[in-house]
Amino acid sequence: RVDQLTPNRGSSNGATRIMIDGIGFAQERQFQLNPKDDNFGNRVFLVSDSLSVPCDVERDSTHGNRITCVTRAMPVDQYVVRVSVDGVPIPDAGVCRGAYKPYRCSFFSVRHRTPTISTLSPASGPPGSLVTVRGIIFTDVYGSNTDRSSNGLDVRFLRAYMGGMPCELLKPNSDELYNLQLDSESSNWGYMSCKMTGSYVGHHNLTYILDSEFGRSLPDKKLLRVSALGKLSMFQTFAGKTRKKKK
């Protein structure tokens, strides 16, 4: 049975870790005889009136009375959790005692818990560029730091990516951040700077992930430009000019 899930709300762009408490879940450390058997173990779906969205189970953080899964991007709405154990769905009567759309067994995808990217500067540069995001970032705390954000929220930056490669918030070999600040102690708006890694030349998108309820950032549509290949991207890297050495 399923008793509750926490947190009950999170980013509409996914990457919110939710914990589902109950009884009778599969022990995810079991040995799987048939790796191709999709029904093995716990499978989680978040179901609205019109959509059923998988929630990706973290096997290492799951045991017989708790499943941890990571949400995917999904439209703003209420989603009731549905769990299958070794291919057998837990019946509706076993989800929050069969209540209709129960709050305790629901996840709400909401805008006010979705980090945003409103501007990105610069919009192009060589690989390794330092870029700055402005948006609703919710926090000025990074990584394993347990401090609360200066605006009082208990949330921190986990990581940022540019084109699938890490975008580093910390200066090399130090604990000093390039730039992570909120507009004021009463604001969720702020700036974050990170340094791109990787040497790929082409079109990239930046994304960052917060912990707690917040999850993955959502960019303003006006940031996305269509590349020559027809892909939407917010940043373009180009090959830097190299000077030839005189012989």
From TrEMBL:
Taxonomic superkingdom: Eukaryota
InterPro entries: Fibrocystin (IPR052387), Ig-like_fold (IPR013783), Ig_E-set (IPR014756), IPT_dom (IPR002909)
Any one GO biological process: nervous system development
Ranges of residues in domain IPT/TIG: 2-87, 115-212
Name of this chain's protein: Polycystic kidney and hepatic disease 1 (autosomal recessive)-like 1
S-adenosyl-L-methionine is among the record's keywords: no
Keyword field contains Oxidoreductase: no
Annotated keywords: Signal
